[in-house]
Amino acid sequence: MKKISTDKAPAAIGPYSQGMIINGLVYTSGQIPVDPQTGEVAEGISAQAAQSCKNVAAVLEAGGSSMEKVVKTTCFLADMGDFAAFNEEYAKYFVSCPARSCVAVKDLPKGVLCEIEAIAEL
């Protein structure tokens, strides 16, 4: 196993890694919409979805993979009412249409509206 670490995505703030590589796969931790340069949270679901996607991409790239190689994502929304707007932004980044689960959760870190994790091949 190999840990992934990059300053192009938000740093891990607990006992976990931004991602792990094992058996030819890259697993990202859930990425919330925090700008890694400023530490600020994007405003609104569209901007938050875009920033979460950018953060996933940064972790994948640091691990030697890419968005085009994603085979599965898990998406968490604070409100299913944001589903359509989230999908619109998500589709711009995950153009290969990987398998996906999308669920609503009670709360997300920092009060954000979405979080995305991914599994990709190397």
Describe the structure.
This protein has 122 residues and is an alpha+beta fold. 25% of the residues lie in helices and 27% in strands. It contains two helices and six strands. It has a six-stranded mixed beta sheet with strand order 1-2-3-6-4-5, covered by helices on one side. The protein is globular, with a radius of gyration of 13 Å. The protein starts with a strand and ends with a strand. The model has no long low-confidence stretch (mean pLDDT 97).
Indicate the topology.
Elements: E1 2-4, E2 19-22, E3 25-28, H1 44-62, E4 70-77, H2 83-93, E5 99-104, E6 114-121
Parallel strand pairs: 4-5
Antiparallel strand pairs: 1-2, 2-3, 3-6, 4-6
Number of beta strands: 6
Strand content: 25-35%
Overall form = globular
Largest sheet: 6 strands, mixed
Q: How are the strands of the biggest sheet laid out side by side?
A: 1-2-3-6-4-5
**Order of helical and strand elements:** EEEHEHEE
